[in-house]
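FORM 7B - TANDEM STRUCTURE REPORT

SECTION 1: FIRST PROTEIN
SEQUENCE AND TOKENS:
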Amino acid sequence: MSAIQIRTNLQSSAKIHPQIRHCFVFLELFAKEGGIQSYIKDIFRAYPEGSTADIFLLRDAEDCENPYASEGLKFHYFKTQSLGFSRLKMAIALFKYLWVQRPTHVYCGHVNLAPLISLLCQSLGIPYTVMTYGKEVWEKLSIPTKLSLGKAQAIWTISRYTRDIACAVNNLNPDQIQILPCAVDHEYFTPGAKSPELLKRYGLDDAKVLVTVARLWSGDIYKGVDVTIRALPRILKNFPEVKYLVVGRGDDQPRLARLAEEMGVSDRVIFAGFVPTEELIQHYRLADAYIMPSQEGFGIVYLEAMACGIPVLSGDADGSADPLQDGKLGWRVPHRDPEAVSQACIEILTGKDQRCHGEWLREQAINYFGFPAFQNRLQQQLLEHQSSRSS
């Protein structure tokens, strides 16, 4: 079913009132790439046709390439050489906009903006929602931020794990929180043959290939690349043809390379470095298993791998419980346990479990996390806010 057909079906059952105007406020959308940015872009792709919204962007410049601007989506940019001046400039413009336009609802795109949004919206009687993603709400928030979350009509987050941790650490009301999980672009991430060119480039001919796609930053060791390297010796005893392809770059790569040498597996670990988005799918398709024993707010990479028909391994105490559907679609193990990782990898490479069946795996992932499902959830949550405002 095409995106146009999906949108038509949704609008036939429920419509956003044409006089409804939403306001979104984000830190940045185009200045850098990342999971948050991809999530926001999906919101604009799924935004109901015929509805109108104004989008305020603190750190994006007006000359950025923006394929989402339209008659219904109007973007306002506030990037200057001084971040403090940018914030002041946006705050003034936002207050004027809220005073004059009186949008139906304001969506605050990051907890760091929540105190400002709360101050402006509370003073003008405009309801607002705060969007959260992961680790930014896993630790104690400042008192002003916590108060602003408490006064919000709703809090959106991407996984049950982030909801539960945020509520426990910051004493938030779970009834306030609505889950809008990430979506996978299943029309782009599809199964396919391993690229002969990439097999040759990385020396992977006749190899069983484990793949991780992650930033290799020293502050992100929770991604679990080091744990997977430690698990390799035992995996190799069962599958001596295994190689581990790490896609990503960062300042932690030298430490990981040294670890591979210490573990005697340096000839089995290949660091691919940065891979452009347009080549990412070909790298997923190299995998016999996608391995990332991590601590994620959600973990879109697991969905991307599953949409390519690749079995996955994640940590067992994070937001990956949602894309892996509590283990129904993949292996979940203690994220710092090389023994558990090696055992699960051996099971995956043996290939007897249903979770290794690529066609079934892709179908299950898309049913719940494909773009049509995301669009439907977004539509319904916008309608709920519309109904609560009019009641």
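SECTION 2: SECOND PROTEIN
SEQUENCE AND TOKENS:
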Amino acid sequence: MQWSTLVATAVGTVLGVLATLVADHVRWRHDRSERERDTLLTASTEYLTALATARDAFSRAEASPGLVGKGHVALGEHSVYAAQQRLELVAQRALAEKAGRATLTVLDFYDVVVAGYDANSHEYVDAWRTCRQARSALIEEMRNVMRRG
């Protein structure tokens, strides 16, 4: 047997093994990226659902000036904080910060409603608009993160 045949066989084997390892690594990274994206999508959806549920419930709340500043309790009852914490565990900093801002706008909205401002008041409309804008900015950031992968 010639040495060139042995060397060619060895090089071919090494290249084959390396190609398989590279392909497996690429597949693993892709699968991991998909799992991370799915986890982020789930956490984002849970957070947005909890936040919307709380905001909608707050829009129907009765005026009770003694509850101003106690929206954090109401948010807890709607699982907003739990959903936000799950999102913060899997999200990038910019996304987590926008989620925090969205939560704060809903707290402000709660204070406006329980302070007794009705849906026709300037304060109510401004608070509602601020919630919608924060939510829109958050959703846009979520979409950007999902696209970037």
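SECTION 3: OBSERVATIONS ON SECOND PROTEIN
Residues 72 and 107 are 7 Å apart (CA to CA).
The chain has one domain: 33-148.

SECTION 4: SIGNATURE
Preparer initials: ____
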